[in-house]
Amino acid sequence: MAVEKRITVLDEKEAEIRKMGGKEQIDKQHAKGKMTARERADAFFDTGTFREIDAFVKHRSVSFGLDKLSIPADGVITGHGRVNGRPVFAFFQDFTVRGGSLGEMHAHKICKLLDLALKAGRPVIGFNDSGGARIQEGIDALRGYGEIFFRNARASGVIPQISVIMGPCAGGAVYSPAMTDWVFMVKKTSYMYITGPQVIKAVTGETTDHEALGGAEAHNTKSGNGHFACESEQDAFKQVKVLLSFLPNNNMEDPPVSDSKDLPDRLCPELDTVIPGDSRQVYDMKQVIRSVVDNGFFFEPQALYAGNVITAFARLQGQPVGIIANQPSVLAGCLDINASDKASRFIRSCDAFNIPLITFTDVPGYLPGTDQEWGGIIRHGAKLLWSYSEATVPKLTVITRKAYGGAYIAMSSRHLGADMVFAWPSAEIAVMGAEGAINILYRREINAAADPQAMRKEKIEEYESLLYNPYIAASRGYIDAVILPRETRARLIEALALLKTKSETLPPKKHGNIPV
Questions:
Q1: Looking at the whole model, is its pTM more than 0.85?
Q2: What is the pLDDT at residue 1?
Q3: Element at 216 (helix H, strand E)
Q4: Minimal CB count within 10 Å: which of 102, 228, 234, 274?
């Protein structure tokens, strides 16, 4: 065959593959407000940089008439390209071809991509849009899912893994996103669940729909399975790129430092008055974060979930940092089951990829109640203790106001390995709040007093004057410095520079037994 003819054959085969599921299926995809897999690849990567691999892979099943069906690219597009100049691997499930269903070779392509990404030490992003397992392929489809899960686990903590849900993701398909580091969802067009509305109706009699059961809002506000709820597919691409800007290529590299026009020694005088005079009044911890970080910008995973704790990426003098902070304006900043899980996962993600941790503490304790106790607050709260203790990246803590009891310990205290701990003059470090403490310490005296209310008030004021300050902790060396709030940014940047060469290794072991 002449060279020209061979080139023509190649062109024809590629053209056939690029038709995907055909015009009718493409039109249906567009009618749902969704791009096709190939349109997504073109929109996500830097122009002209995407290189597809395994385009000619075909399924091998002959059951249920599959031998008579052509499935272009076997329903998934895999390859690599550049994102803001940076090499990244990605796969895009193609819903226009047999609903993007996963069979043996579909899974093989994803596994091959994950293997390549792991060997190259590069991030991998999965754009999920699939009806689930290809039923006709039976056990081979199940094997495919299992091998993907296996690779997700092996790659965890080595390379960043990001899942973008851009359509249905049901049954076994949801476990791969759950095993990756970050999950993005698109409002109104994406959903995840183990069993769909019809199955739930048949088994339990409960009536629901796709969106209420597993849409972006449900997973970003209720289950915590989603980390970002995006307004559109284009918004999802934009947010994924922002996240990538904070992450290294792999666990052996430092995160990328950017040029910062924000002055490292900039004072934040507005912080001197951010704490209310009455310690029972609330304030917005996000004001504190905005004042301290470069250009007031931070990027917040799980912003709609467990709002009593804030987790965010930001920069200090261009250096990416992970921020964990109590939010006094939600549940008084108490730690509960969901907040503990949210913070613990974030801490471990940052530690895995060499991102220093900054903690802002204003916590009155763990949230009381039978729901919390029966739901396992002991176990979930212990995850936070574990995660901070296990983390070996630089750990800096700023106590802005309350730091009571076990929650004081849990929020990156010196006792869990914090490298430097700062406190504002407004810090209150104690076993518990004054009213609770007085009820224990002076119950009999108060009950026997001629004027119980007056004595209670007197003892509360005495307790507050004695313990509601940072100086006892500072006298023990548990606080490194009591600083003016306005100095916070400068002191954190100085400490980060000091700890840039920090070296700490954990005892040799296979792995710890985190209380999951």
A1: yes
A2: 67
A3: helix 216-218
A4: 234
